[in-house]
Amino acid sequence: MSKPSDQPSLRWDDNAIVTLDQRALPHERRFLHLSTVDDVVTAITTLAVRGAPSIGLAGALGVALSAYAHCSQGSTGDGHEAVRADAHRLAAARPTAVNLAWAVDRALARLDDGPDAVLAEATAMIDEDLAVNRQMVAHAVQAVRDRCPQRSLRLLTHCNTGRLATAAVGTALGTILALADAGRVTEVLVDETRPLLQGARLTAWELAEAGVPHRVCVDSAAAAAMSQGLVDCVLVGADRITARGDVANKIGTYALAIAAAHHGIPFIVVAPESSWDRSLADGRDIVIEERADDEVTFYGGTRTTPLGTRAYNPAFDVTPASLISAIVSEHGVHHASEVSA
Ligand code: MRU
After folding, report:
1. Is the Cα torsion angle 99, 275, 328, 340 positive or negative in sign?
2. What is its EC number (predicted)?
3. Binding site for substrate, residues?
């Protein structure tokens, strides 16, 4: 039987995308059947499907849904225009992760060959993501070994970068699971990841499923944990990486990197080649998604602020390359800084 982390997070079945509704976890294992482009856009914007590689794969399958809706095999003209408009909507559903536009464009490039070809490209990308993640995890395990020779590791991670965020296996969390499989993990500290709790809800769920010892901490406890010697290495994912290695990732990542640098703790980013955007040099040019105030002003359905209070709610921040010990992809270590290694 395959390990839970190897199970695909989304698949094509009976003209629909089938995926776990990540909003319902950890309480409920609810599957969504997304059969229209509107369904896919809504799933991406509401974070039912989330994580840079996963939203890319959902977007690519969304192009296939559109192609079947608007084009018969070999047709051109208005049908193609409609698919292009849908592809544009899918790619714009979330602005920060470059994987989304990359995957949508890749599926769209097969449109002239008909809907079956678009679908074949999208499903090939699911298989590819799985293979890429396995290669990346092998390199990242080595990068951790090089920087943390001690046998028993205390790791810290932020957000969710596991199988839910990818086709399967995961990136940073995949690396943590592989280290745990090798008997090298004493404990994982999981940032709860305010405001939508991807760490508390999803990463803790994946770690529990795999039987890896972990504790959840509030995001603001991470620096204190480092100062108390509870963290040997920080591992995170990425939504967009610029040519010089600045990394956009879930809000709170930058603060973690500053704290890790202060304490001399390796800070490793694990992300596929498809997360690189070499058209940008400087991370300050990355578009950061701003989300609704009520994600911050409510907690568990209850307002926590005075009526009318506004929120500052960026979904991501940018960590400069100088604070990152290593960026690891399926090709190996792309960037290594001496700052904290
Ligand atoms: O808003 P989210 O939950 O989609 O943010 C996800 C992250 O920031 C992840 O760290 C990133 O997409 C990498 S997932 C392998």
Report:
1. negative
2. 5.3.1.23
3. 50-52, 94, 198, 249-250
Phi and psi at 12, nearest 5°, equal -100, 125
User: Does the annotation count 239 as an active-site position?
Assistant: yes
Residue located nearest, by CA, to atom 15 of ligand 1: 161
CA distances from 314 to 38, 216, 221, 222, 260 (A): 24, 22, 20, 20, 22
Is-contact 99 53, C-beta < 8 A? yes
Phi/psi of residue 281, nearest 5 degrees? -95, -50
pTM greater than 0.80: yes
Determine the distance separating the centroid of ligand 1 and the alpha carbon of 302, expressed in angstroms: 25
What is the whole-number distance in angstroms between the Cα of residue 291 and the centre of ligand 1? 14
Marked catalytic residue, from 239, 246, 277, 317: 239
The pLDDT-based confidence of 2 (bands split at 50, 70, 90) is low
- Residue nearest to ligand 1 atom 10, measured at CA: 237
Q: Which atom of ligand 1 is nearest to the CA of 236?
A: 10
Cα–chain center distance at 212: 20
Q: What digits encode the pLDDT tens for the residues 301-341?
A: 999 999 999 999 999 999 999 999 999 999 999 876 644 33
Atom of ligand 1 lying closest to residue 159 CA: 10
Q: Kindly report, residue by residue over 132-152, the tens digit of the pLDDT.
A: 999 999 999 999 999 999 989
Provide, rounded to the nearest whole percent, the portion of the chain with pLDDT above 90: 92
Distance, in Å, from the CA atom of 147 to the CA atom of 341, rounded to the nearest integer, reads 6
Phi, psi of 62 (to 5 degrees): -65, -35
CB 240 within 8 A of CB 272: no
